Amino acid sequence: MFTSEIIQLCRALARCGGLLALPRRTIVPLVSLLLAMPSAAPSDDFWKHKPSRQWSAREALKLVRRSPWAKLEIVVLGEKETEAAFSIPTGTKHCDPDAIDQNGNCMQKGRIEAPVDSSRQTDAAPLIKPWAGILVRWESATPVAQAFARLAELGERPAAAFQAPPPRLPADRYVVTAVLERPGGKGFDPFAVTPAGKPVLVAKLKTRRGIVVPLEVEFTGVGASSSVHYFFPRMMDAAPLLGPGRDWAEFTLLGAGFVVHCKFKLDPEFLGPIDSRENP
To answer: Are 67 and 1 members of one domain?
Structure first.
């Protein structure tokens, strides 16, 4: 059975035009690889009927990693290809006339080109672009805050710290965290702050009332736990950004060579105001 991560990766690859052309011998190993990834299996929504003081460490971790407020988003990383992914000789039929040189060769970039060697024939599979897994979490949900508090009570502070909790939870902000959970390759550290400065990232939050940008941004953690926290306003034009009933919000994050889209379905029962104390 396909996990949510497999479905997301397939959709991402399809947007790049690479999935449909993959032969079965390539898809099968890919699926096998992703089946090893932890997934958000159907649950009984224990947080609805079980007091937080009774949650186990495993249940608390599930809330901050795979829950309605914590989702692993698969992103296909952009790259500049110097060669065509696969080969179909088409002459100049689909070439821009201005891109044909004096010898009759099509110089148009990004076009399907003639084979460069025997391993790139018409039946060869396209190269699979590198991908990464970015965890996006809606921090301003009562169960998420309770889960981090429960981990602290159970003496699991290192495990909680590894999940990149927000430094604070202001009552007048919606806080969204993004953390790299599955690196897409060597050197891909989208949220790491270096001596050269902070990463250049653009975030927005879309709701039925409109689009807002973060009022504050904070980077925390180092190495594998590097993360970014966005603080969005709860009000827009003097009206609540969400509610009063069930609502949704779509978070978008644009970085160097990648983009993340994450949509949350939000229940007002779990979106009560959270005080501005420091996160434990």
So the answer is: no
